[in-house]
Design brief:
The protein is an alpha/beta fold. It is built from 14 helices and twelve strands. Bound molecules: pyridoxal-5'-phosphate (PLP). Pyridoxal-5'-phosphate (PLP) binds at residues 81-83, 106, 108-109, 149, 153, 178, 180-181, 200, 202-203, 212, 214.
Length: 386
């Protein structure tokens, strides 16, 4: 393979064309999918760029480079899931290291970190990030890592990456941002002071609900090298086919995000004026408490939103059983619209008490807005809400 162009490129160009026409064998325009698990040495003691598929794979490397370029990082590691990417980072911390995380993050992230804590690997400090005093007190305890998810899941709270990461830096902690909800098309945490970005590429980056994979991007070369070594040591890698599909999905990232966001904004405004909805959580609404911050920190408001049904669980049940244009399913970020009930689905494992503390009620529904015609989406919701 020829090297992708060394010229600096604008993000939309990277997404659409990174690695295109780099095949020196046949001039393939779409980058080839290399499934081989092993690579011939060119001679005695002469390995080539790749020797074994766990240590490296050309297809995976290309997708990782594209994601790193979009995030403005030195490099990226691609893993078998978003949680594997988080575990890769946490697994490299010294035993007993403290990790600070918000109380309203993705349920699976909290479950993973709590499981690691229970086994004695880390000490977890869970705080409400909107309480800056509590957050500062936690960071003063000397954590190795501050974990930020913004916008948060499912309440779409937005946290100031620049403020939080500089606070972390002051006390010697590194910052990782889960950028799954916005993707690098709409938010670049490394440019705001974060040291790492983590993705469930299962979601917007791949965008077609046919891959489970993750990525971990590091700002500096040294971290990147260490994480790459760690992925080879632990075997936390993404398959060539998943990597290939993910890069293929990234081609349309900007166009998808733009249109899905438009649909989400229209739906948020519609629900905000709907008699059966008591509250809408979408940072694009001027009534959202973090609207100004979102406007400043993000290049868009994304395609995720949540709302409270006025009739609580009874209303929720009726809606999810009648709504046609939204599929009742976990996950998000695909071209098709999904509806999820956090209390019984994504956040069920958190337990009722923790959900209550995080403000996740039984009447809350989360939408991942897709590319369908907006009239069909609104009609479907209205039918379920009437
Ligand atoms: C889905 C998700 C994860 C976990 O990713 P997997 O690919 O399912 O392991 C982590 N963070 C956020 C915000 C997610 O939505």
């Amino acid at each position: 393979m020829k090297k992708p162009t060394e010229k600096p490129q604008l993000p939309k160009t990277i997404a659409a064309a990174y690695g295109v026409a780099c095949d020196s064998s046949f001039g393939a325009v779409s980058p080839p999918l290399y499934l081989s698990s092993t690579y011939e040495f060119s001679g005695y003691d002469q390995p080539r760029a790749f020797d074994y598929g766990r240590a490296g794979n050309p297809t995976r490397a290309l997708a990782a480079e594209a994601i790193a370029a979009l995030e403005g990082g030195a490099g990226a590691v691609m893993t078998s899931s978003g949680l594997a990417a988080i575990d890769l980072l946490v697994g490299r911390l010294p035993v007993g290291a403290k990790v600070v995380i918000q109380n309203d993050c993705y349920g699976g992230t909290l479950r993973l970190l709590k499981a690691r804590e229970k086994l004695g690997y880390i000490q977890l400090i869970v705080v409400d990030f909107s309480d800056l005093n509590a957050l500062e007190a936690a960071i003063k305890k000397g954590p190795s890592l501050l974990f930020i998810e913004t916008p948060s899941n499912p309440l779409m709270r937005v946290f100031d990456i620049a403020v939080l990461s500089s606070l972390a830096k002051r006390y010697g902690a590194k910052t990782v941002v889960d950028n799954t909800f916005l993707s690098p098309a709409l938010q670049q945490p490394l440019s705001l002071g974060a040291d790492y970005v983590v993705h469930s590429t299962t979601k917007f980056l791949n965008g077609h609900s046919d891959v489970v994979a993750g990525a971990l991007v590091a700002l500096n070369d040294e971290d990147c090298q260490e994480l790459n070594d760690w992925s080879n040591i632990t075997g936390a890698i993404s398959s060539p086919f998943d990597s290939w599909l993910t890069l293929r999905g990234i081609r349309t990232l900007f166009a998808r995000m733009e249109q899905q966001e438009k649909n989400a904004m229209t739906i948020a405004n519609h629900l905000n004026n709907h008699g059966s909805v008591s509250k809408v959580y979408y940072p694009g609404l001027t009534t959202h408490p973090n609207h100004e911050l979102a406007k400043r920190q993000q290049q868009g408001f994304g395609a995720m939103l949540s709302f409270e049904h006025k009739d609580g669980e009874t209303g929720v049940r009726k809606l999810v059983e009648t709504v046609k244009t939204f599929t009742l399913a976990e996950s998000l970020g695909g071209v098709e619209s999904l509806i999820a009930h956090p209390a019984t689905m994504t956040h069920a494992d958190m337990g009722a008490e923790a959900r209550k503390a995080a403000g996740i009620s039984d009447g809350l529904l989360r939408l991942s807005v897709g590319l369908e015609h907006i009239s069909d989406l609104i009609e479907g919701l209205d039918a379920g809400l009437s």
